[in-house]
Amino acid sequence: MFKNRGKLILLLVPALLLTGCWDSQDVSDLNLGAMVILDRQGDELSFTVEIAKITPPGEGGGGGGGTKQTYLTGAGANFAEARDALDMQMDKPLFLGTVRTLVITERAAAGDLAEYLFRLRENQEYRQKVNITITAEEPEAFEGFENESDEPAGYVIDDTIQTATELGHTCAVTTEKYVNDILAGRGFVVQNIGFDDKQIKLNGYSVFRDAKLVGFIPIEESRGLTYISGRRPVWVYRLPGAGGFVTAEVELASRDVKPSYRDGKVKFEVKLAFRATIQYKSGTSLFPLNEKNIKEYSDSLRRVLKSEVDAAIQLSQRQFRSDYMSFGEALRIAYPDEFEKMDWAAEYPKAEIETEMSVDCAVSDKLDIEAS
Amino acid sequence: MIKKRPKIEVILKAIEEEGFPLSRRSLRCEGGSIEILYVQQLTDRVSLADFVIRPLCNYLARGERGLKAAEVAENVLLADDCALQTDADEAQSLILDGRVVILLPEDEQYISVNLKKVEHRTIADPMIEYTLRGPRDCFVENLDTNLALVRYRNKDAKLRICQYKVGVRTKTSVALIYIEDIANDKVVETMKKRIQAIDVDGIGESGELEVYLQSGRRNLFPQMGVVERSDMAQHLLNEGKVLVLVDGSGMALSAPKCFAEFFHSCDDRYDNMYFGLFMRITRYASFVLALYASSFYVGIAEFHTDALPSRYVISLAEMRARVPFPPIVGALMLEFIVELLREALLRVPKQIGSAVGIVSAIVIGQAAISAGIFSPLLLMLASGALLASFVMPDFTLANPMRILKIFALLSTGFLGFYGLVLFTCAMLIHLVSIESFGVPYFSPLAPFNRYDFLRSFIFNISLSPLRPKNLKDKDRTRTRT
Amino acid sequence: MKASVTDRQVFFVLFLTLTAYTVISIPKVIAQKTGSGGWTTILFTSLVFAAFAWVIVRLNSAFPGKMLFDYSRRIVGKAAAYVLAAYFALYFLLVAVHLNMQLTAVLRAEFYPKTPQWVMLVATLLVIGSVAYRGVTNVGRFFEVIGSVFVLTAVATHLIMFLQGQPNEVLPLFRASQIPEYLLGTKDVVIAFLGIELLTVFPLSGRKSGRTAAAAFLTVLFVGVFYVVVVESCIMMLGMQSTKNYSYALIEAIKQIDNPILERFDILFLTVGFAALVAGICGVYLALVEYATRLFKKPPRIAVVAGAGAAIVALSVAGQSMKNSTDLFESALLIAGPVSALLIPGALLLTAKVRGLVQKPR
Q: CA separation (Å) from B378 to A21, A31, A245, B383, C352?
């Protein structure tokens, strides 16, 4: 037998090759999803999928309209039925690997988000870095979205969030972190988006406790949140002072959260150090940016920052009662045994959190503002 | 009774019976006639007249008696290469080899004189080992010319040239060259044994000889190098390698040869060390591109679409929107067309070569995309792979690559990137298992030798003080500065 | 040519075989059993196994050019040597079946959900068989190449994971109150270090045996450090809670890596990582073939390789249809592994020393 081993191999290898490539799927035979919108109307769940329009090279353009993406909706009593209803409308299999944004309406988020996030995690097709956002808009509103470059809405939303993250105006969070927070019993915030005159806009944050939607933080009130939770938060402030207004770019330089646990009481000392760069003055009136004035602006800024951070902390403790700023993590690291024994969700609203700000204010190196 | 002169009669009779055409010049002398036998087309007739016939005639005119071959060879003939022979059976081979055989009436011995003159190509520029810098003299089809080139570049007293006749009918001259106090004795002995063991009708080219010298005739990867340039030959001899020259072939063979050496070029030695390193990296990258480019395309387009960023996936889908064939089929078709192009351009007459090239580019490139037969990305990758395959300095590595590329494609078409991984593992185990005359083929990577690795991959090999360890040379010291 | 391997090849053989499959699942095991202080468990276990790796190399070096079957005939007699060979052959068959099943399960779960497992099994075994057929020396070289690429890629990948991950997830690094859990966790980590027994089929030249033994010892310690790096970086990327949930936590963690070129960074693991996995299984297959050829001397090597492959396929397919086959295999390995890696080599070395068969190391 083994004298003919060459023939045996020659038979075996093509036989294997010809049995079919089960996972082979040509990319042009797929419906490429760009965005998925999850909604709930009463007891019915619905998925709306935005499918990217594929324009072969040399075609496309010419005449108005006709370049919008395709939207398909499937509804059912649960996720599986809703998905089945959606699949029944597909001329080609749906490919979720190109989905960049998952939009969940506030109605759907008010229910238990955990099941959907676990479903998301189990589905290998989804990108690991897919953005989850909450919206108060109706799913139909997204169909009216227009973009000059004909990009799918899902991509524009993702780009908007990425840009905001790069500018330091928001906290970037992956789906895996949401799942981790749910499993750890922690609260979390999810970006909330909407439309502003048919343009995508970041509205703020939807707050979750026990994987259920409990509130909303407008973007204007979210600076404190970004200073506690964001990676590299940067905001611009217009500060009053004796001589007039100055505009300064404020960047968080360092963040230190020091927990202490004594006699059953939890206390946090939050020290935030900021670096402020004065960029320009208001008006043409000349007022000197001397040491005294800069100290004034620095004090004014510190007061503003402290009020923002304190307000953010109070909001999380008093109104939402959800530790979405992860103070519990600092406590867990410092006092792991005690943390394991306590009910942190109940303890957090009672915790004493003191904040201390320091601001290092300087004039921008690029310009000599005082040169006459 | 006429006294027979058995030797000369035996030889002449044998030649007549064989019936091959040759030229014959008789000179009358005391005791009979001197027979001068030669093949006109292989002999320098001017030298024959000046160095053999005229001196003999002058000698005979003096009325000398009792001509002896030894005396004639030493004192009469003016040719430098004269040999005394006794074997009657050898005479035919000598004549067919281009030598002039002089039969004397009163002597058992005869003389063979080397007045060989064969028309051959002059030394020209290299055609396959072209470099920007460095000498341009390369081997030709004449063994003597080639040996002259080797001798000219290497004046080492220890340079040894062993000559053999291979092929029962063609009796092709094969020269084995090595430097005695550097080359590994085992390699030399193995080579000698293998040459002497060849029993075939004929050998026309070094490529035919290579098949018999390699261990295992079914090896996909070449175990010997092909050398066209004399300076490269000199470098290899100094390295401790063995060179084989074949009469009638303009390509020499060198052994042992390792996989990494296929990526070395003469430019690396003559140019700046950093440029040499840069070019070697480029060659390795080209090898990977040539082998895997189409497979990556098939893997991404068919199995692992989600590996690409989403915008690229949409671009890829747009490019493939009108293409009717699955990626694997398109890739195989395009590879076939590329191979057709390669073969056609090799054999097309020079006058219409450029026209054919332009037509192919336009037809395949533009028209195929417009007709929606191939995706532009696939075409670009296939073209890039084709160009990359020409980057290898030693073209003999490009041939197995062309075959392996198809297997890589099929493996990827079957099981995606995992199939490609399995293919790579299979190819790798094959490469590490081969030995070229006792030297592991994949050294200095496996088995790893740090000194050889650094010298092969990073530094200029000509400047390294020691010869590679894997060759097990007798003298490892190369430079003393 | 006498079959032997260099120190460097010993390093890669050990490294790739030990990490073959375990590297994918060890983050989950550590996260579940010991939490963020699990690095202590790993390092402690690695120390124990490093010591026994030293024992095996010491044993091999005392009998240059021979593998365990050959020198055990001298130490314990012919009959006992055959019993040992049969035991090791069965053991490596069990390990090969388990590893192949796990490999195909991972492929199916992460990359090829529709491809039948037997297809992946047969395709893998064809390649692994061709590797094992080439013998010890060539397999050693094969490991050298694959191992070099894998180590470089792994180091770069885990460095990126350390930079992008959340350090808070792995803190606190040590809790004194968890010391009993850290010690108990050793039994769950034992499987991660099974593979040192592969050294019994790699003959050594006997030259510089002290250095080879030290290399083996340090290699196993290095594997321990590598596991620590893998576990900590996974937990940093996924979070402690998520890591407990994923069977193949390493692949999930690699998917989280942010980079501009590949959307799914685990494609790198599919190529380089699985090449290392395949290499690891090749080592086990080679060991099975080496013992089998000693037991069945008459058939040609290719017949033994093909027979072993057929046995692996048959048992793997049967195993896939059984419920809880993975647990069954792991329970069996928990007992058979330490016997093969620790007990038998230790007993052989002791017996050889008592009988005066062990020379001093050179």
A: 20, 21, 60, 9, 64
Q: What ipTM score was computed for the predicted complex, to two decimals?
A: 0.92
Angle, in degrees to the nearest 10, between helices C136-164 and C209-238: 40
Enumerate residue ranges in chain C where pLDDT < 70. 1-3, 206, 359-362
CB B196, CB B164: distance < 8 Å: yes
Sign of the CA dihedral C36, C40, C41, C47?
Answer: positive
Helix (H), strand (E), coil (C) string for B196-238: HCCCCCCCCCHHHHHHHHCCCCCCCCCCCEEECEHHHHHHHHH
Place of tokens 């003919």: A4
Closest-CA distance, B360 to chain C, in angstroms, reads 34
Q: Domains of chain A by range and CATH?
A: 27-55+66-219 (3.30.420.40), 222-372 (3.30.300.210)
d(CA A54, CA A68): 10
The amino acid that residue C107 corresponds to is L
Q: Which two tokens stand for residue A254?
A: 């360092």
- Write out residues 12-51 of B within 8 Å (CB-CB) of A: none
B413 Rama sector, left if φ>0, alpha if ψ -120 to 50, beta otherwise = alpha
Which SS3 state, helix, strand or coil, does residue B450 take? helix
Residue of C4, C128, C265, C267 best to disrupt the B interface, most CBs of B under 10 A? C267
Residue B459 contacts by C-beta under 8 Å, 6 or more apart in sequence? B273, B277
Contact predicate B110/B11, CB 8 Å? yes
The verdict on A19 touching C (C-beta cutoff 8 Å) is yes
User: What's the burial of B203, exposed, middle or buried (CB within 10 Å: 0-12/13-18/19+)?
Assistant: buried
Give CA–CA dist A329/A228, Å, rounded: 13
Token pair recorded at residue C97: 């079946």
Residue whose C-alpha is closest to residue A116's, from A83, A158, A86: A83
Q: Rounded mean pLDDT of A146-170?
A: 87
Q: Are C111 and B299 in contact (CB under 8 A)?
A: no
Helix C301-321 vs helix C78-110: angle between axes, to the nearest 10 degrees?
50
Do B126 and B228 meet the contact criterion of CB atoms below 8 Å apart?
yes
Q: Under an 8 A CB cutoff, do C267 and B307 touch?
A: yes
Tens of pLDDT, residues A344-368? 999 999 999 999 999 998 887 776 6
Rounded Cα distance between C171 and B395, Å, is 57
Question: CA Rg, chain C, in Å?
Answer: 20
| Minimum mean pLDDT range among A275-289, A309-323, C274-288, C309-323 | A275-289
Tell me the C-alpha distance between C223 and C229, whole Å: 10
Asked whether the predicted pLDDT for residue A4 surpasses 70, the reply is: no
| A203 closest CA partner among A118, A135, A278, A305 | A135
Chain C residues whose C-beta is within 8 A of a chain A C-beta are: 109-116, 119, 122-123, 126, 168, 171-172, 175, 177, 237-242, 245, 252, 255-256, 258, 263-264, 300, 302-303, 306
Residue B2 reports pLDDT greater than 50: no
- Domains, chain C: 7-354 (1.20.1740.10)
Work out whether strand A265-281 and strand A352-363 pair parallel, antiparallel, or are unpaired: parallel
Give the DSSP H or E segment for B95.
helix B90-96
Within 8 A of A121 by CB-CB distance, chain C residues are 242, 245
Closest partner residue to A23 (CB to CB) among C115, C126, C245 is C115
The closest alpha carbon to B81, from B34, B47, B42, B57, belongs to B47
pLDDT score of A242: 66
**Residue A286, pLDDT score:** 56
What is the distance between the alpha carbons of residues A198 and A107, in angstroms, rounded to a whole number? Answer: 21
